[in-house]
Design brief:
2 domains; single chain; 3-stranded mixed sheet; 502 residues; mainly alpha; 8% strand; 20 helices
Amino acid sequence: MKSNHIHKKTLLKELLLFLVIVLLSTTGCKKYLDIPLPVNKIAGEGAYSNDKSSAGTINNILGILAGGGYFDGALSNNFALYTGLYTDELQNLNGTNTANIPFYTNAITPGTSGALWSNLYKQIYNANLAIEGITASTTLQNKNQWLGEAYFIRALCFFYLTNYYGDIAITSSSNYLINKDLPRVPKAEAYKLIIEDLLKAQGLLTNEYKDGNGVVTTNRGRPNKFTAAALLARAYLYSGDWPNAETQANNVITATNGGATAYGLLPSADIDKVFLAASTETIFNLVPTRVNQDYVAYNNNMAPELAYNAAGNWGSVTIALSPSLVNAFEKNTTTLTDDLRKTYWLRSATMAASNTTPVIAAQTNYFPNKYRSGIIGTENIILFRIAEQYLIRAEARARQNNLDGAKADLDRIRNRAGLNGTNATLQIDIINAIIEERRVELFTESSHRFFDLKRSGTIDAVMNNVVLQKGVGATWNSLKQNFPIATNDILANPNLVQTPGY
């Protein structure tokens, strides 16, 4: 009888685990945070009884983030690409592309803004569920790893939500009754939760990278202690806490793992290898099961010469770098050679003249060339790399009036790109030089340019000029720096108000 009871109990746990896996994989069909309370209870009791199932819940979230097109060039929910079109990084080459045009003309509406809001909240819900279940569990050998990863994921999702949308709804619960009517709160409250989560993650995770079995690995597809520090440095910088931004960036820059330096800038001669999966510059990357979509969107083995076709475009080539970004790359004033990033991280193609009336003249355009491989696994989706940490520390130092330290960090990035050190000497000029360096170092990565324009207070001045260059009915007003929430999400929550201006 006792053996039969144990067998039934085991079967019950396996059934509960199956239900949770189904829940986590199907929450994409629900409205954000809209999961009834009874299912939460099943998850809390059954999903986190062993390390394998706990790791599986985290794997599922990371897999969705890697495959959902949020951070790479996939043309679905891809705000890295869309914010490039929205600002001054990218230009639209196809006047009939209904996905690109609303972003390129700064004319998005609640009906054309995409599903990023609801999709990221689904992952926040899953992270909340994991945090509650893992915290309550008493049987996990790698409890700290799974819990630290869940806190990091939640902070990452909230960070992007607040920087895309401004004021957002925040929650640390999976309770449907709590979440279903949450209002938007000021960004400062979101940052408080983001920083609290990251400090917890930093305390729980180890210096080493570990895999889904809790075993040390060289793969950087799961967060470690320094991944949490990298996002902390960014969060502190964005929220104006310069001393802590400097401290956390310094923690990453000086990090060691097993007695060796954990991260380092590759030398100038290897600048073409920065975005390879095995790069020592990578702090954290998502590992997709498909070819990196930045390669597909911007490169895709594109020929160096493209003919204008009967459809009125240059085939699948619909997006190029903006002329203003291309012109932002400097030359070495001594040797007159190009910035190495322009040489290796950009590629050009000649677009033939059209046979239409009026004729569209032949043109040469430049395209992002950071990701250049069509082989799965050669290049992952890099979200954090060491160059950003140098630029964070440089800006934090400059804003604290440590100008020599700021210039040293800035020049480290410039010199690696084959450029002379900065000529800036005044505090404001050094800060502006750092922002400009971020533009040419981090272009088309994770919406950095959009966020920098907003947090630096320069977005209106830049965009009022950019829309004149875009033409085609593009307009700008200051309210457009925060995106609208999709209509269905507004209707699902009576306390959720639309972003002002929409």
